[in-house]
Design goal:
Elements (H helix, E strand, L loop, with lengths): L1 H25 L9 E6 L2 E2 L3 E4 L2 E3 L1 H12 L3 E6 L5 H6 L5 E2 L7 H4 L3 E2 L4 E10 L7 H6 L4 E4 L3 H7 L10 E4 L2 H9 L5 E5 H10 L3 E3 L5 E5 L2 E2 L4 H16 L2 H9 L5
Parallel strand pairs: 1-5, 1-6, 9-10, 9-11
Antiparallel strand pairs: 2-3, 3-4, 6-14, 7-14, 8-11, 8-12, 8-13
The structure holds arginine.
The site of arginine has 15 residues, from loops.
């Protein structure tokens, strides 16, 4: 009697395990690692992503956290070189790239972009009292321009039409390194997104932002081209989080509107 019972129980166990395996195989995870949302960023870009002690905070970090929560995933943020984010998303190393990343036609050939959640402007930082007083002077003179490698600031500036051309561009792996080079006179100007520009100028004495903005752009998350399931889930979450006021509140927290 005891033996039969034991057999029934173990047969049941085997069936359960087979069932679990089958459902595992059936339901493929929407993300690279099950139950996780791995975000690649470059965390020297306040107020979108930056270190608060050892924690990465900012607009992108908080929006990603809210999206992960909605999708029932645990957010993991990896701080990498900005110009390695897209390749890592393409090779499924990361689920998303979120780094104040501008949507461009060229990048769209490599990755999908979510709906945009913020706008940016390329600004020009110069030392106070610089003879560079507007974008035309910068483009027309023989000045050295610091940029963060692989960013739109780099792409636009490196172009001879519309920029200053490769020879006059000095590339840095972090935005704040470009700003440091400006402070120490190694470059004459830095082209970088407006909000980081404002925090860098606030943190470094003797620098100012030109009134004339260079280019306007839109920020979005990038996702692997084959992962339309994640793209749709993220767009749905973005829509809900915008409508319920979560995203506007996060942006207002980091970029308070005056008035
Ligand atoms: N918006 C620019 C771009 O997409 C710069 C982004 C840099 N982001 C960063 N987290 N460092 O190229």
């Amino acid at each position: 009697m005891k033996n039969i019972l034991r057999r029934i129980v173990s047969a049941g166990l085997v069936l359960c395990m087979a069932g679990a395996l089958a459902s595992c195989a059936k339901k493929k995870s929407m993300t690279v690692q099950k139950d996780k949302l791995i975000m690649a960023t470059n965390a020297y870009f306040p107020p979108y992503e930056y270190y608060d002690n050892s924690k990465i905070v900012g607009i992108d970090a908080e929006i990603a956290e809210a999206i992960a929560k909605k999708l029932g995933l645990e957010l993991e943020i990896q701080d990498v070189e900005f110009d390695s984010i897209i390749a890592g998303v393409q090779s499924n190393k990361y689920d998303i790239g979120m780094a104040g990343m501008t949507v461009t036609d060229e990048r769209k050939l490599a990755v999908n972009f979510s709906t945009t959640y913020a706008t940016g402007i390329q600004a020009v930082i110069v030392p106070e009292g610089s003879e560079i007083t507007d974008v035309d002077t910068l483009l027309g003179g023989d000045y050295k321009v610091g940029v963060q490698q692989g960013t739109t600031g780099d792409i636009y500036m490196s172009d001879v039409s519309g920029g200053v051309g490769e020879d006059r561009v000095v590339r840095f792996s972090k935005g704040n390194d470009a700003v440091l080079a400006l402070s120490t006179g190694k470059v004459d100007a830095v082209v970088i997104d407006n909000e980081p520009a404002k925090s860098f100028v606030a943190a470094n004495e003797g620098l100012t932002i030109l009134e004339t903005a260079y280019v306007e752009e839109e920020y979005a998350m990038c996702i692997n081209k084959n992962n339309t399931e994640l793209l749709e889930a993220i767009n749905k979450a973005l829509k809900e989080l915008t409508e319920d006021g979560t995203i506007p509140a996060i942006i207002e927290k980091y970029i308070p509107s005056k008035g």
